[in-house]
Amino acid sequence: MLxxxxxxxxxxxxxxxxxxxxxxxxxxxxxxxxxxxxxxxxWMRPEQRPAYRVEARPLVQQVVATGRVISTSxxxxxxxxxxxxxxxxxxxxxxxxxxxxxxxxxxxDLEAEVREAEAALQRLERSTRPEVQARxxxxxxxxxxxxxxxxxxxxxxxxxxxxRESMEQAQAQESVAQATLDAARAGATAAQAGGTEERQLxxxxxxxxxxxxxxxxxxxxxxxxxxxNVEPGDLVQPGRVLFEIAHAGSTEIEVPVDEKNLSVLQLxxxxxxxxxxxxxxxxxxxxxxxxxxxxxxRGTVTVRLRVDPVPEYLKQDMTxxxxxxxxxxxxxxxxxxxxxxxxxxRAAVFAVDGGRVSRRAVSLGxxxxxxxxxxxxxxxxxxxxxxxxxLQLADGARVxxxxxxxxxxxxxxxxxxxELPVSLD
Length: 425
Prior knowledge:
About 30% of the residues lie in helices and about 35% in strands. By secondary structure, the chain is of the alpha+beta class. It has four domains: about 50-60 and about 330-415, CATH 2.40.420.20; about 65-70 and about 250-325, CATH 2.40.30.170; about 75-105 and about 220-245, CATH 2.40.50.100; about 110-210.
């Protein structure tokens, strides 16, 4: 007969058979729980974002552009007459002084005109002038004789010894002699030294010599020959440029600057320049001209910088990168430009406080190539997210900061050459 109560021994047997199975499952359950907790932790953990710490540091605002070397003035040398080049005396790169001979032309017809004018002047001095003096003396003698004859006949007519006709003939001869004397005197006056005839001949000679002097083309000012467009044997004529000469004197750099930077440009601002051919040898310059108008086709304003002293390696039309310093702060609260959000002339940043993001409006001051001054909205020690333009974060979003080293702007940053400052409009 079976007992209605379970046997204690039977329970022990059951426990003995089930305990090993449960002990084998326990580690798996624990591992699954830990994995679930890890996944939950990772899911709830904030995303890490690069960020900058707002700090005070020196800041230089610069306008960066590319220009070329020019001289203050240039001139073009050419011929005023038609002629054949007999000899060329200078080449490109030669330094010339005022009056230095550049080209000699052949012009035999002009030489003949000079010789003819000289011969005419000699003829006046050696032949014409003595002849008119002799004619003057002859006319004076003739007038004296006819005057005596006229007086004698008038006396005879008064005594009624001759007819009136004879007296009138003598008076007419006297008038003719007087006219001849007047003409001789006029001729002598014109032919005398310094008279009108001599002045005319000397002017004619001077004109011929001046025309002949045009066969010698000379430099008008000191400078350097930039280009030459003539060789011996060439036929030249007025209007053709034979040489281009850069005048000696101050050297300038002409730079077209984007018109958006016009408000920060002023005369006297310093600049650092680097010639593309000599990148390791920067030199200083100063803004001394800002064009009164803007080039409408390119949207640029022409700026010229005076270079003094002029480096010996600087050549005309050489390409030069220019950094014009338009503002400087010895200590300014700055943020990198990639941390700024700009729209319609307003600026903002993604500020991080207590691990949460908030979009914060800021006021800006000097704007450098890499950094910008913040005059309001942030304080030293605040954190702002980098690469703000690419972020789409709501206010209150949680993030973890990945500190980044902000780029420190140098006086002449290599990466900024041929660029303009970041536009914050």
